[in-house]
Design goal:
It is built from four helices and eight strands. It has helices at 2-19, 90-105, 121-134, 159-167, and strands at 21-27, 32-37, 41-47, 52-58, 61-67, 108-116, 139-143, 150-158. A hairpin with a 4-residue loop joins β3 and β4. α2 (90-105) runs antiparallel to α4 (159-167).
Length: 169
């Protein structure tokens, strides 16, 4: 009897986790870079003068970290010569691209706004009609001739969709 109760609580917990909403928001104008699973996990990047600050919250546990990896002025070391580069077979690469496409397709774009300036007046003029063609209900893409670039993306998903996109053949 106790085993049935424990098993049913375990199944109920997994079902609840799979149905939790996942949200990703990137807004360069307001400086918001966050991802959260509502009520479970919260992850936010905060830009600063010394580097990026990471705010991580899991249930009631909260931690502020300074991400020294992304600090300005740090550069990656050059590869050592003689290192063997791992190559992927074309069939495996195709499967990975399909999984990546399915993963991206599982997200719902609630808000997408992209404003671009290439700093080339003629290229901006060529891109202007193409970009106007791309605008739809929840999608706004524009060319800015004033030197401003910004992105605003708000995505939602459910964890079961992410899992299904990754395990599907």
């Amino acid at each position: 009897m106790i085993g049935v109760i424990i098993f049913s609580v375990f199944i109920l917990l997994i079902a609840t986790l799979l149905l939790l909403p996942l949200e990703v928001e990137v807004n360069s104008e307001r400086g918001i870079y966050r991802a959260d699973i509502r009520g479970l996990l919260y992850f936010r990047l905060l830009p600063g003068s010394k580097g990026w600050k990471v705010l991580l919250r899991l249930f009631w546990w909260e931690r502020d970290l300074t991400a020294w990896i992304w600090r300005a002025g740090k550069r990656k070391k050059a590869k050592k010569p003689g290192k063997r580069v791992w190559k992927m077979r074309p069939a495996t690469a195709w499967k990975n691209w399909r999984k990546l496409y399915r993963l991206i397709a599982s997200f719902q774009f609630r808000r997408f706004r992209l404003i671009v300036d290439t700093d080339d007046f003629i290229l901006n003029a060529y891109l202007f009609p193409i970009v106007n063609f791309l605008c739809r209900k929840n999608r706004y893409v524009a060319i800015n001739f004033m030197g401003e670039n910004s992105v605003d993306i708000y995505l939602t998903n459910r964890i079961w969709r992410v899992v299904w996109a990754l395990i599907r053949k």
